[in-house]
Design goal:
By secondary structure, this protein is of the alpha/beta class. Helix 2 crosses helix 3 and helix 9 crosses helix 10. Helices cover 31% and strands 12% of the residues. The strands form two sheets. Strands 1-2-3-4-5 form a five-stranded parallel beta sheet. A three-stranded antiparallel beta sheet has the order 6-7-8, with no helix packed on it. The protein has ten helices and eight strands. The chain is globular, with a radius of gyration of 19 Å. It has one domain: TIM Barrel, CATH 3.20.20. The chain binds zinc ion. Zinc ion (ZN) binds next to strand 3.
Length: 278
């Protein structure tokens, strides 16, 4: 922690600010390393002895996160499995409890990335704890990684707990959008398309859990003001208003009015950073 704080103080440059720590809590579902509350299934649908991995001791995690929080360091959790999500929320809960009576606006904006499998009991905890859901919305679709490598090994019930964007939004959780590039495309318009349609045109399968689709307004807000919010930039970023930063992406289609099925066909024609064309 001492080294991190020294780095934070001395290694900021321009718009680069080392103010966050990423804690990789688990692996990924496809190779059964994401940390699950119940075991993965085998090819015959029977429970195995494997529930995935905790890369950081969950018993110590609340103490680590509380120490980082007390030092004003934001924590970005990598959490794919429902056990990793719960461990991260438990750690944020401990950090909040260590600042009794503090105003919510002053809370450090910790966020949980990926959120592939979220136990239903944990959905309301995001809003309650001020933990932002950092979503890679492109991943919420039926493609071979989902249908062949994931659903059979989660089983019917848990497979429906995946990428619960609508439930998170309805629960009042803050949403942020991210790409996880270079793991997948950095194009936010593809991700917003999937958030709304739960499929891409080239993926032949049915929409993936379409009840978890969100409005384009919610998806656009996540990828703009929502992300600006967890990146700790001033309130004057992530929205368009007089006197704001003018960090803008200009698209060749009106994202407010084009049909849902055409969002992914839009492309960015200009990028502006603080009022300058990049
Ligand atoms: Zn990650």
């Amino acid at each position: 922690l001492e080294g991190l704080l020294h780095y934070r103080q001395h290694n900021a440059a321009g718009r680069f600010r080392p103010t966050s720590v990423k804690m990789m809590l688990d692996g990924i579902v496809e190779n059964h390393t994401a940390a699950m509350l119940a075991p993965y299934l085998d090819h015959d649908g029977c429970a195995t002895g494997n529930s995935g991995l905790d890369f950081i001791d969950p018993g110590e995690l609340p103490r680590y996160v509380t120490a980082l929080d007390q030092a004003g360091v934001q924590v970005h959790f990598h959490a794919l499995g429902d056990r990793a999500v719960r461990n991260a929320l438990n750690a944020v809960e401990a950090a909040r409890a260590a600042r009794p009576g503090s105003a919510r606006e002053t809370w450090i904006r910790h966020h949980l990335a990926h959120l592939q499998v979220v136990h239903p009991d944990d959905i309301p905890r995001f809003a309650a704890l001020g933990a932002t859901a950092n979503l890679q919305m492109l991943w919420a679709m039926n493609e071979p990684q989902m249908t062949e490598l994931t659903i059979p090994f989660l089983g019917a019930t848990r497979a429906t707990w995946q990428y619960p964007f609508a439930e998170l939004a309805t629960s009042g959780a803050h949403l942020a959008g991210g790409s996880d590039w270079p793991v997948s495309s950095p194009d936010p318009l593809l991700a917003i398309h999937v958030a709304v349609n739960r499929a891409l045109p080239e993926t032949a399968g049915d929409p993936f859990l379409p009840r978890q689709a969100i409005t384009r307004r919610t998806a656009l807000a996540a990828y703009t003001s929502g992300t600006a919010r967890i990146n700790g930039v001033a309130a004057s970023a992530g929205s368009i208003k007089a006197g704001y930063d003018a960090s803008l992406a200009v698209t060749d289609a009106d994202l407010a009015t084009i049909p849902d099925a055409e969002i992914c066909e839009a492309s960015v024609t200009q990028t502006w950073v603080r009022g300058e064309l990049a």
